[in-house]
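so the lab meeting is tmrw and i was supposed to have these ready like two days ago... anyway. pasting both below. for each one the top line is the aa sequence and the line under it is the structure tokens. i havent really looked at them closely yet so no promises
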Amino acid sequence: MPDAMSPLTVESASLSVGFASALRRAGMSVPPDRAGRLVESLQLVPPDARDALYWTCRVVLVSSRDQLPVFDAVFAAVFDGMLDPADSRGDMNAPPPVGAEERTAAPAAHRSPAGDGRASTPAAIPWEDSSGTRSGRERDALLMTASTDERLHDISFAELTTDEVQRMRELVRRVVLSTPRRLSRRTRRSSNARDRLDLGRTVRAAERTGGDPSRLVFARRRERPRRLVLLCDVSGSMEPYTRVFLSLLQGMASAGEAEAFVFATRLTRLTRQLRTRSPDQALARAAAVASDWAGGTRLAESIRRFIDDHGRQGLARGAVVVILSDGWAHDSPELVATQMARLRRLAHRIVWVNPRKVAVDFQPLVGGMAAALPYCDAFVSGHSYAALSDVVAAIRSDRTTTTHNTRSR
């Protein structure tokens, strides 16, 4: 086998995050900071040969001997076609390629949280070669029929397989979140005499007629959409949903129509990282910056940091703030309520997206969710593509109260 492998000349950040995600889906524990270390390592040891890539990934990502079988299987699946088939020829104990199992045969650790037995089987990650040509798996996903897309509309994000997640990201990235419009301080000329008189323009026009205001100039205030701020929970309990929600953030941030933040144990602003047009590159940069990925949740502290560092400076004033979180937090409910009250005084509208809301027995009676709910204008699930329509409607609405808000305002 030749050493030079042009398909591996992908960006080290995209490669690192993608490979680490594949290992997690296969059941191997990979701390979030390991992907960042792998990015740095691949810059020192360029992945231009199989051995260099293999040993670099193994040294950085493998922490115990027990993880080697899973690591080797995932490595073979992700970089399929780049390994020598003779390596495992004739070995009946060789692990099967990841993604070759039937969908219903996934181990219990990989079954969906809904408990319906639907498995989420790890599969090879689609890469692009140096010419920008997509692999067969990704090309097939992008050419899915409309009927397949319709079938995906009602499936919970937590139940999607790897291939379905890729297609769902393509769909979600095209979702447009429109905020209500507000009056701007700037004005534009109007021909309607019912609008207010623009004295400045009227006087300047009178100078052309010797000081005689022969023509009155009227003006009306311009309208502009309200600012949209997205705060996405990337803690461990939200991991099945954030893999899709981040594509929603990337789509809005890349269009310049939203400010994007993620939080777990701390708050991280990702607007600049997500504004690149390449979705994979944007998510790789985001993962490299947010080191607390899949950790615990400090909900009150994250909201406080947002208000103190960004909200009071203008980002939250008169804005529509969308919080995507299940509300599970280490902070006390009293602290959550205090910070939500501060955010309520700044924001025009607060929309809370909780994918756990779809459960039949869901009751937001305790914890951070119960403390935050009285300060929200809308409470929706957003657990599937079809449910995102409720998110879009809640953001677009200009109402300041809902049936979920029990406070007198």
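ok protien two:
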Amino acid sequence: MAKNRFQELASVRPMARFIGVSVRDLLITAGPMVLITLIVIVIAYLFVRPAPPDTITITSGPAGSNFQLTAQKYQKILARNGVKLKVLPSEGSLDNLRKLANPKVQVDIGFVQSGVSEGMNLDRLVSLGSMFHLPLALFYRAEAPARTLAELNGKRLAIGPEGSGTHALALVLLKANGIQPGGATQLLNISGDEASQSLLDGKIDAAFLMGDSATPPVMRKLLWTPGIRLMDFPQADAYSRRFPYLVKLDLPMGGFDFGKNVPPQDIHLIGPTVELVARHTLHPALSDLLIEAAREVHGKATLMQHAGEFPAPLEHEFPLSSDARHFYSSGRKDFLYSVLPFEWASLVNRTLVVFVPIVVLLIPGLKLVPALYNWRVRSRIYRWYGLLIAIERAILANPSPDERAELLKRLDDIELEVNKMKMPLAFAENLYVLRDHIKFVSDRYRRDAEGC
């Protein structure tokens, strides 16, 4: 019987230290540390941006345009890395820039040719680099070659739809040659198939075409049509100096067909450079991934560029993002994304943003909880000792009989309150010692009062 009683007590003893533990005290003690850890995790998600989104949107160009075809190539490359790229049609460069500058439009990146940003707010836009040259192809119908744009005065010209880079550049070049809207020259906001067919049918005299507003098949059809000429710009050097966003481009003799020698001589062209423009909130890992895709798409040699010439960290109207600058000079910024597949690196980063604050803050903080809890419980006992000492000092100061009676009554009240206290069993000894001390002080000064 005694043995069973002993075993029962032994089984209860390990739990005794937890009996009477105040949940409120534990919450007050550990709560701030848990709250701080949660705040750090939230801040990490908001500002550290540990994991990139798996879907982004690019504003490209009209259906079938070079801009849209290029965006679709990006789409396939990003899909290999688990990122979905939504390709949003647009009118062209100017339309792309307006969408990027408008926070209400859900786009992340877009192709924008240099020279179309005048009067627009570019504060929240950055460049991921120059991607390719965009030669201006001016096709016209004439028996003899034209030498300057001024010769088009009074003609019917297709200058591309509003919102396209073609339209914006055509107006600038025509104005430099004394041709403006409202004059003798008829300016039509058409491009692509419509402009091409109108030129073939003799309804217009010339058409400005670029990659953001025309398809490659349209360009090829006009190049091979008798009676349609591609404008040679002898003043290309002057244009590139007058307008810094334009570059001189040479289409070499025989570039389209060596056997038929098409074109029969070098043709001087002009054109802007196309940049991949992004909002400043673009995740660094996606910036790296996009530049890698750009290298795969634009890094090869073409008639207008040498191998490896693009993409390039060239700045025009848009500042090069710090992430892009780092990538061009040193490669990937994030170590995990440089050694792991994109999807795995994203998962690890997402895990770290929760795991690191727990390891750095919560675990060490929770180790302090027992000491803080002990201090909190003991402080409740020490508070009564403070009152007890204060009353004892007041009694020793020789108070009047009424004041002494009031002080002794306060001792009784303290004893009553202490007897009601709930303490964990680990602190029972401290509680009983406090009760003994209260009783000792009360008895001593009551005897003194009776002796008086």
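from a quick look at the 2nd one: Confidence is low (pLDDT under 50) at residues 5-21. The CA atoms of residues 27 and 341 lie 42 Å apart. will dig more after coffe
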